[in-house]
Amino acid sequence: MVPRTIRGVFLAAILAISPLGAARADNVPGYAVMPTVLPAVSGFNGGLDILGGTIAGQGFLGVAGQVTMPVGERFGLQFDGLIGGNDGTFAGLLGHFFWRDPNWAMFGAFAGYTRVSRIDGPFYGIPTLGDAGIGRFGVEGALYAGIFSIDALLGYRTGDLKSRFFSAADVAVYINPDLRVALGHRYDVYGHAAALSAEYQLRIANQNVALFGEGRLGE
After folding, report:
1. 62-68: long-range contacts (C-beta < 8 A, 24 or more apart)?
2. What residues contact residue 204 under an 8 Å CB cut-off, 6+ apart?
3. Whole-prediction pTM value?
4. pLDDT exceeds 50 at position 6
């Protein structure tokens, strides 16, 4: 799967910058016995995220879903969907195509489109963002080294708003098989920011449920 830093870029298309999802903790070298060869994606799978928070002092709520599927042994395809809003609504789709070896690296490309009916600002330097379409595309990658990983992306935004580049990067460590903590950097419409995030996987009735949070401090 795509690292959450990368999947967060989907939110970035609508909110600020938020990039495929973090590799499952039970696939982390050092915490489990890894076969010599693993497929890019073990099989068709999906997920559901319930989102909430604030950006530039404005609250938002949303629901996101992902489906991931193998394309042969070494490649994968993932689609993300999102709908939400504050005073208005936003909705979008993001697709990823990637090569991945779970033992050491992932590299891929993403493209997506988001439609915003209205979001109270300040947003992209606009007091209130009305009807607008936002397109994003770029490249993404990750390196795995035992319990550590480096996730990064570089993309370009275009559409009804001013076109510009954006980026995100994280250095992450699995404190244990279920807890992932990451420190990183974001560059988006609000400028540069440091980011601290954590993801904890709850194992409830044989169903994987994860809690994720991210905070930023910047311009």
Report:
1. 62/90, 64/10, 64/11, 66/7, 66/20, 66/21, 68/1, 68/2, 68/20, 68/21, 68/41, 68/44
2. none
3. 0.76
4. no
